[in-house]
Amino acid sequence: MLELTKENFEEEVLKAEGYVLVDFWSDGCEPCKALMPHIHGFEEVYGDKIKFCSLNTMKARRLAISQKVMGLPVIAIYKDGEKIDERVKEDATVEGVEEMIKKYI
């Protein structure tokens, strides 16, 4: 999974063609840590159709805020640089995220 930073976010997500899934997470977020292995599993299954990336919001707080990430976890899908869907907090379940992915493949 590609690790995003404030330096590469624009190129890897906002200027990317096609679908990009971004896992917004933080070291202090237990639900984020519980979801992360499942996101990696989804990458193995769907990685040929969707680009998978992660952003540690503690390292890029302003960037996360600019993307309207106000709580964690947030799993967002972008298409051609525009956020088109997301699962936030209690909706960011394994089932909810997989359902969202399948909607766009």
Give a written overview of the molecule.
The protein has a five-stranded mixed sheet. 31% of the residues are buried. The chain has four helices and five strands. It is of the alpha/beta class and 105 residues long.
Main structural class = alpha/beta
| End-to-end Cα distance | 18 Å
User: Count the strands?
Assistant: 5
Low-pLDDT ranges: none
Mean pLDDT: 97
Q: What structural keywords apply?
A:
alpha/beta; 105 residues; globular
Topology:
Blueprint: E1 2-4, H1 9-14, E2 19-25, H2 30-46, E3 51-56, H3 61-66, E4 74-79, E5 82-88, H4 94-103
Helix pairs in contact: 2-4
Short overview:
This protein has four helices and five strands, in the order βαβαβαββα.
